[in-house]
DNA sequence: TGGAAGTCAATTGTTGACAATCGACCGTCC
DNA sequence: GGACGGTCGATTGTCAACAATTGACTTCCA
């Protein structure tokens, strides 16, 4: 039975692990490009900067390595991954496989709450104009697909998604800096996905998400110079 | 240019991290059922048993949590995952998505060395009789699929595969203890996969792997009692 | 006797110090 | 002059002690 104390969930949520508070901070510095690709991350340096010991920092770096944002080499420390065109190919082929499964399952499980979330994101996409900030485009794009993955009700799928999500963010940031057409594409493309999933048509939905991701990969590739 | 010194790669491989040596040991104790599902793993206990401090043990537990073999709860430590029927559904739907991608790519990349590996495993499968040990069945089964994944030449796919591989091993162990028909099924089923992949027929290969995995999931479900 | 608050032991989270390893630099020898 | 070998500083890997949190037990009171 809901009561006024339900509002306290955040306050009562016990102090999260220190490493858990660090991961988002470093992650964003990497995905936004503030920490350039190939940059060397020294444990002691980060620890003093963040006001903690090396232990939690070390755990955070392991987590970021798991997400593919840094590479860890024994006795040589961590450095921000330098993404190549082959990496883009790997990430997007895996992404296609995962999101097809996500959409397939979401078709029968999409709740009104999920639909409302999708529509809220779509609404913000519709309002974008040519002067949009790259960071906002990345955020909206990923937020949409986050909902799809969550709606699939598949914890392992969600974890696999998180394992490439950060890398996708890096690619998208580069893409939006090089090519600014998201305000024209975002709304109609994602709207088509929303509609077919909401209609519960598995066959159509998987076809649409597939087409969307192939297109997204093509746009990403054409924006790359190497 | 290959020379005689190439044989020394193993010898020159520097001492691996302590946690890396611990992970396989605990992993096998879990997948074989030596450590029962739900068992509590205490860091200090493991550390003294393994003759090291809690640091590496802690890292090892994080890795095992990543593989889905233990669950980590803050201030409550690690315990061996208690797999449910819903978990089986999650693992096998994700597995299908991953292996379809693996086979799709393997079709155009299978080297003679990969083929030889597959045939070696198939040969051992053919020689199985009704008295096979469950552990051997699990090993052969996974070894076959390991080659497929490796042949895909996709490092991120490989990592995703390792993320569910241990859980698959747990399910298979249970299945082989409850139902012993692997010696009749293993060789023909996997042989069909090998042949279509070797032929390079993407469409046929994905269909065959799909059928194989659906069948494997059905057999696994029928062997479960809960 | 039942429920709630307080206490305590067990266990994990964090820290700072020490040991091991790596890559770069530098001098030497052929 | 180029390659080999040794030394050194910087950085990570490991350890043991300390702090914080949890869940169970005990105690208290209505």
How do you describe this structure in short?
The structure is a homodimer of 226-residue chains. Helix content of chain A is 71%, strand content 4%.
Fold and architecture overview:
The structure is a homodimer of 226-residue chains. By secondary structure, chain A is mainly alpha-helical. Chain A has 2 domains: 4-80, Arc Repressor Mutant, subunit A (Orthogonal Bundle), CATH 1.10.10; 85-223, Four Helix Bundle (Hemerythrin (Met), subunit A) (Up-down Bundle), CATH 1.20.120.530. Helices cover 71% and strands 4% of the residues of chain A. Chain A has 10 helices and 3 strands. Chain A has helices at 9-12, 18-31, 43-50, 54-66, 85-109, 112-126, 134-151, 155-178, 182-199, 202-223, and strands at residues 40-41, 70-73, 77-80. A 3-stranded antiparallel beta sheet of chain A has the order 1-3-2. In chain A, a hairpin with a 3-residue loop joins strand 2 and strand 3 (77-80). In chain A, helix 5 runs antiparallel to helix 10. The longest helix of chain A is centred in the middle third of the chain and has 25 residues, at 85-109. The radius of gyration of chain A is 19 Å and the shape is globular. Chain A starts with 8 loop residues before the first helix and ends with a helix. In chain A, 34% of the residues are buried. Mean pLDDT of chain A is 92; it is low at 1-13. The structure holds a DNA duplex (30 and 30 nucleotides).
């Amino acid at each position: 039975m809901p009561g006024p104390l339900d509002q306290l969930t955040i306050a009562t949520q016990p102090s999260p692990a220190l490493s858990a508070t660090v991961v988002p901070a470093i992650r964003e510095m990497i995905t936004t490009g503030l920490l350039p690709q190939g940059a060397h991350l020294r444990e002691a340096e980060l620890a003093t900067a963040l006001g903690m010991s090396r232990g939690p920092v070390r755990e955070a770096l392991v987590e970021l390595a798991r997400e593919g944002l840094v590479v860890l080499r024994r006795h040589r420390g961590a450095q921000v991954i330098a993404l190549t065109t082959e990496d883009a190919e790997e990430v997007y082929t895996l992404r296609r496989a995962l999101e097809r499964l996500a959409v397939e399952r979401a078709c029968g499980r999409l709740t009104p709450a999920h639909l409302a979330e999708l529509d809220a994101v779509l609404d913000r996409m519709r309002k974008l104009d040519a002067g949009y900030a790259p960071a906002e485009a990345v955020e909206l794009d990923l937020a949409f697909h986050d909902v799809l993955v969550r709606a699939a009700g598949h914890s392992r799928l969600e974890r696999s998604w998180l394992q490439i999500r950060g890398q996708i963010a890096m690619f998208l940031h580069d893409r939006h800096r090089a090519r600014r057409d998201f305000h024209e594409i975002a709304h109609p493309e994602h709207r088509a996905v929303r509609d077919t999933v909401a209609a519960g048509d598995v066959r159509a939905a998987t076809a649409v998400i597939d087409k969307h991701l192939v297109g997204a990969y093509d746009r990403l590739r054409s924006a790359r110079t190497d």
